[in-house]
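ASSEMBLY PREDICTION REQUEST
Request ID: AP-0331
Submitted by: J.K., bench scientist
Number of chains: two
Total residues: 454
Priority: normal
Notes: Please return the full assembly, not individual chains.
Input sequences:
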Amino acid sequence: MNLEGNCVLLILFFLNLLGTRHLGDLIMHYYNIDMSLSNKKSRVLPTTLDTSLDKMSNALDFFMNKNILTHHDTNCDCNESVDKCVTFYQRFCIHGRIFHSTSYKKRGLCNSYAVQYLQENASKSLKYFGEIIVFFSNRKDSFALLQTFENQKMLSEYFKLSQFYENIEQPINAFYHVVKRANRFVCVPVKNIIKHCIVFTKNSSDSLIITPVSSYVEHD
Amino acid sequence: MPICKKRQYPLSLPLNIRDPKSFATHARRAQIINQSLYGHKGRSKFANILDVPFPLSIICDYQHVSLLRHFRDVVKVISSSLSIQTRKNIDYNLRNQAFPHFFNRKMRGIDEFSFIKASELRNLLLYGFIPNFYDILPLEKAAHICLFICGIRLLHCSNENFEKSRSSLAGNLLKIYYQNHDKFYEYLQNFVLHLHIHFATNYDRHGALSCVNTFAQESLIGYIASNRNGKLTS
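STATUS: Completed
Returned structure:
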């Protein structure tokens, strides 16, 4: 549904209420504008929007991080040290959406660093979640360092005795995941980061409930 | 005690669904005999304008049906069944929940529900309700509301793959929710609850709930009305 489609109509509403004599001319005028806008072919090809943002100038502790060191040794074929080759970033635009990392300090109260990601050569039925600690890129490619969440028991097990268990088992396990922060760090190519997630903490335990964002496009 | 002020619609299966042909003939008959016939009161003025015949072109506006009416009433009832201290804890958790940066609105506490916006209720329905309430409510009641939330979330914009199609799965969930509704709530089987039984067919016809937001320019209606100058002629 095109939101601008009613643009002409709305202007007509205004004119009707305020009173104008040159209604026919004006309709043609605005209609022509609309038509020429829609006929105009956009010449600029949509390029990929994925870019790095907020380069970190002072990232000493990340140069010492052993996960990044080993990742650099195995994945980058340059023969230089990490601090010459790798640059660190606080934010990244992936698939046209901005993702934060925990090293981005201006994020306020929002949480845009909990994400769902794809793991290469893993079964598609499993879902992987993590928190982005920092983005980094070497000469060829960009990666994110993630602290992973470890899947715990299914949320549906709580409802096992309920009469509705059979019906809600599949969907509730697909949408809500009970996880725990694991002490495991992985480096993931940025294109494998899919979605933002919302994390719910429970006061009593260290297990979290995580759920991916349902829709990015809905009009508020 | 709540008093029943609204007409109640308990689920009666099988559903007697109108099709375009019966809709048109009954509407015309009602127009001729000038009486209500099977709920028709005459031919609609829009029938000539729309290019899709009538019962097919009707969309349930989930923003008003699910969010602002049904879910809001249900949450109010659930919240009033809790003790004051747990209610306060939940309100605190809801207000302080972190969301991604592109969420324009977060969630509100249940004590200020009268000023709530549809997008805040959407966040509560799709994301916040189950994690905050599932271990507080009695088991059957929590599972029952999970039926509703999973059904809406399946139809909202999900791309999960299941054995069955999304719409049939969600339709089944909403049907079971409707069937068992009177065991858990009093006097809430009103028209908006009944509309949920048609959500699955709506999904197949018109697409996901997140795309059929019929009031995308709702704010402009008020703007035009307040900006007018002179009398509106009928």
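REVIEWER COMMENTS: Chain A has six helices and nine strands.
SIGN-OFF: pending second reviewer
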